[in-house]
Amino acid sequence: MSSQLPTLPALLPMLKRSAIATIIAFFLFLPTLGIKTAASGGVDGLFLQYRWSGLAIACGLIFVARMAMEIFGKKQDGTSKPAAAPSALVRFFGSAKIAKTVGPVLLVFAIVFPFLPFSDRYILDLGILIITYVMLGWGLQIVVGLAGLLDLGYVAFYAVGAYSYALLSIHFGFGFWMCLPLAGLLAATWGVILGFPVLRLRGDYLAIVTLAFGEIIRVVLLNWRGFTGGSNGLSSIPRPSFFGLPFNQEPGGFAATFGLEYSSMQRIVFLYFLILALAIFTFFVTGRLRRLPIGRAWEALREDEIACRSLGINTVNTKLSAFAIGAMFGGFAGSFFAAKQAFVSPESFNFMESATILAIVVLGGMSSQLGVVFSAIAMVGGVELLRQLQFLKVIFGPDFDPSQLRLLLFGLAMVLMMLWRPRGLVSTRTPTVFLKDEKTVSAAMISQGRG
Amino acid sequence: MNYFIQQLINGITLGSIYGLIAIGYTMVYGIIGMINFAHGDVFMVGAFVSLITIIIFGITGTSSVAVGIGVLILVAAISMVIAGIYGWTIERLAYRPLRGSFRLAPLITAIGVSIFLQNFIQATQGARVKPLQAIISGGFTILEGNDFVVRVTYMQILIVVLTFLLMTGFTYLISKTSLGRAQRACEQDMKMAMLLGIDVNTTISTTFVIGAALAAVAGLMYLLYYGVIDFYIGFSAGIKAFTAAVLGGVGSLPGAMLGGLVIGLIEVFFAAYFSSEYKDVAAFSMLIVVLIFMPQGLLGRPEIEKV
Amino acid sequence: MSQPLLAVNQLTMRFGGLTAVDAVSFDVHREHITAVIGPNGAGKTTAFNCITGFYKPTEGQIVLTHADDRQFELEQMEDFRISQTAKVARTFQNIRLFGGMTVLENLMIAQHNHLMKASLYTLAGIFNMPSYQRAQKAAKEKAQFWMDRIGITDRADDPAAALPYGDQRRLEIARAMCTDPVLLCLDEPAAGLNPRESEELNALLRSIRDTNNVGVLLIEHDMSVVMEISDHVIVLDYGRKISDGTATQVRNDPAVIKAYLGVVED
């Protein structure tokens, strides 16, 4: 379709299609957006509130959006889209040389980030959050991206790490650096325990079983009150200190020792660099693993499991190692989470977390570490920004809190981003070993794995 | 013993609801091989649409039984239609553009749709639980022991009977009509079916609509049976129904029903005799045990690895 | 000759009521090319999958004897161990390369077990210790050797799925050879090849037999390949062995002619 505005005869079918879309939207929104059940407090229990203006605005938006798609968008024929030519973005990040320069630039930015003028407490907290998800994404990428095992219960290992840290530090007084490896080890052990019986299952079944495992762990955390504190969680977890110097106003604290004026920001900056260091560690270890025989075996497993067996690769052990190592990084991140919050409760480890991490990996591109960084920024940071939007009060009424929409927009963003780039932001694959020159492998060749 | 029979009755009722949801999973998985993760949330939407329609019609427990049942049928029809539109829209917008694409992509969009629906309902209907007074109350006593009375409520009878009728109807639909034939053809080989002139898109859309409509009926039943719903009911009911579908053998309609009954019974008995807090753990553990020892399910066909 | 390399004894495989392979016995010798032929559905691939461990036979023994007289009962071993310890390598009828990985990576994965040990199960690899570096270098050289031998060195860094069909077939053979097998099992290696490629394949198989001290067992439909390079031919029909001998013997066996052409009835 050309770029100039269509003529009237061409416009009519577009209007018709948009009208149909609007009618469908009307029926979708009528009983949900248009009518609200509200509690009256009386005997009848519930009565209805009508929001006709909200309904009209929503339907109007659908009509406008559909018309915009008709006029400016590509022709939609409804069947599967042919593979789109690599966009500029893909060519940019897909090239190995560019990736090598973007990485260090990002790292330098991450290091100076806390000292930039706009970095207040809110921004730094957001930075910590994003880096935590980047780290979790790199951990899960081993399982989902490399080994091709779909894990919907990754949050279980995050929880194991967090509770390990909490319990070890509360009951035994272990410090952060002592708890960190133990938490990773425990998470990895759980990875083996959970992985062993289920890793023979084929893809989607594995997904649902890992989801069930994640839920089981959450329910146990919620109900084993004597051990985990139940829904109240565990509080007053000791905070990490700077090589023994706590972040407080006491004479022996961090500020006093270095002759600085005490500020609560010092602890935040410390936490920021702590998670940054952990993430960099994760980056190097997972990047290195990928280039080792074990990493190649993971990818081979994703490509063709039967061929792996014919080459003498013990597929069960290989899968278990992917599961355990992925879980270990989840455990590390979990213990950081517990240390940062000084509080853990089962509510932090629900399915939404697993879904978020998985979405970051898939959107990032299954085997690109850089892609995970960008998708974590988009998923976590972008949605956080959307949360600030105030105009939605028009639809939902003045007493509406836009932060309620965070997850709604998150779900919508997940759908739209996958439609936009089904294979992720960086869909090419960099070979792990090369003879003469390092070329990337285009997405069309890469197998998707059974799981 | 009486306590046992009472739990058996409760378990069958709950199992019928799970079975109805499970049909949607099993049909969609059978035809396009994906877990429609948003299906549990379509069930939840169905429950909400039913609630709103019931309040619009203003039926209460005091209405006469005939009026009550008549209106309930109308309510069921409306929520089936609305949920069907939801099912159709979800397939059209979130799954169809990704058909034949990267395999994980539709799963991620399905999770996205699920998150969207939950939070959409939370935003529009509020986060609080919605109570509804019993519309069909009463029942009769079938056994009277010295310490425990076994009762069957009219509601339970309605649920089981309605489930049975719908099951029979849809089994007939799938096994005897051209729609069923088209579905099975797509299940076997989508490309070949297309070459033979089967409208694959319509067949898949219809499958989603049927699944969503049955989930809406399940939502209505859930609402009437428990008398309370919230925006989050779709998640755990969804996983349990999926468990039921797998347990029964993916792709098999009677299997989905059977699996639903087994899961319902396990949940109710576990809650009755061991711990109600851990009843979900029991249901999910069942899923794991079944998948490990009997991946083809109770009524499914075994899969032979092709080398 | 002492013990044969592979002794298949009374091999039987049933799927439900169907007997795909029925009490078949044969031997495969070192430095021989042994071909299994037969009409469609004769049970060739099933027998093959039993030998390489992808199916567990219902009855019968499959004994592999190494040059140092170590013996392996393949029917009792897990599939990956058959390659790992008994040293039986195989290819597939529908090529199973790691398509998204490069030619070189494919050949490196074939050396996985050796490299895993060299990397001390990843520990030495993480720190890139000299012992691992040496092993990695040696593995690369071995891969280079096989790429040179099948003439695809200039495509070493291309994804396997991008190779032409004939190269993919030969790459799969090279990959199998990188596991250092004593027995190489090929499932229809000439399928889909043009006459020139087929000729190259024959030369490759002969040179593997003569220089690498392996036995080659192959399933083939292409009679020109079978007759030209086989030292020993086994004919299956309806799951039973109907003939066994040299190519010439088999060609003139009335039972074979009957199986392939049917009996002329008046």
Word description of this protein:
The complex is a heterotrimer of chains A (451), B (307) and C (266). Chain A is globular and about 75 Å long. In chain A, α5 (121-146) packs antiparallel against α14. The two termini of chain A are 39 Å apart. Chain A has 18 helices and two strands. Chain A is mainly α and 451 residues long. Chain A folds into two domains: 8-72, no CATH class; 94-445, ABC transporter involved in vitamin B12 uptake, BtuC (Orthogonal Bundle). In chain A, strands 1-2 form a two-stranded antiparallel sheet. In chain B, α5 packs across α6. In chain B, the strands form two sheets. A two-stranded antiparallel ribbon of chain B has the order 1-4. In chain B, strands 2-3 form a two-stranded antiparallel ribbon. In chain B, a hairpin with a 4-residue loop joins β2 (139-144) and β3 (149-153). Chain B has a single domain (2-293), classed as ABC transporter involved in vitamin B12 uptake, BtuC. Chain B is globular, with a radius of gyration of 19 Å. Chain C is of the alpha/beta class and 266 residues long. Chain C has two domains: 1-87 and 181-266, Rossmann fold (3-Layer(aba) Sandwich); 95-179, Rossmann fold (3-Layer(aba) Sandwich). Chain C has eleven helices and ten strands. Chain C has helices at 44-51, 79-84, 103-109, 112-118, 123-126, 130-150, 165-177, 195-211, 223-229, 247-251, 254-261; strands at 6-15, 18-28, 33-37, 59-65, 71-73, 88-90, 183-187, 215-219, 232-237, 240-245. Chain C has a six-stranded mixed β-sheet, sandwiched between helices. A four-stranded antiparallel β-sheet of chain C has the order 2-1-4-5, with helices on one face. Chain C is globular. Chain C starts with 5 loop residues before the first strand and ends in a 5-residue tail after the last helix. Chains in contact: A-B, A-C, B-C.
Shape call of chain C: globular
Q: Strand sequence of the main sheet of chain C, in spatial order?
A: 6-7-8-3-9-10
Order of helices and strands of chain C: EEEHEEHEHHHHHEHEHEEHH
Total domain count of chain C: 2
Mean pLDDT of chain C equals: 89
Low-pLDDT residue spans of chain C: none
User: What's the order of the H and E elements of chain B?
Assistant: HHHHEEEHHHHEHHH
Between the first and last Cα atoms of chain C, what is the distance in angstroms?
Answer: 47 Å
Please outline the major beta sheet of chain C: 6 strands, mixed
**SS-derived structural category of chain B:** mainly alpha
What is the CATH class name of chain B?
Mainly Alpha
- CATH topology-level name of chain B: ABC transporter involved in vitamin B12 uptake, BtuC
Largest sheet of chain B: 2 strands, antiparallel
Residue-averaged pLDDT of chain B, rounded? 86
Tell me the strand percentage band of chain C: 15-25%
CATH architecture of chain B: Orthogonal Bundle
Write the CATH homologous superfamily of the largest domain in chain C.
P-loop containing nucleotide triphosphate hydrolases
Rg from Cα of chain B: 19 Å
CATH-derived architecture of the largest domain in chain C? 3-Layer(aba) Sandwich
Quote the distance from N terminus to C terminus of chain B. 52 Å
Give me the secondary-structure category of chain C: alpha/beta
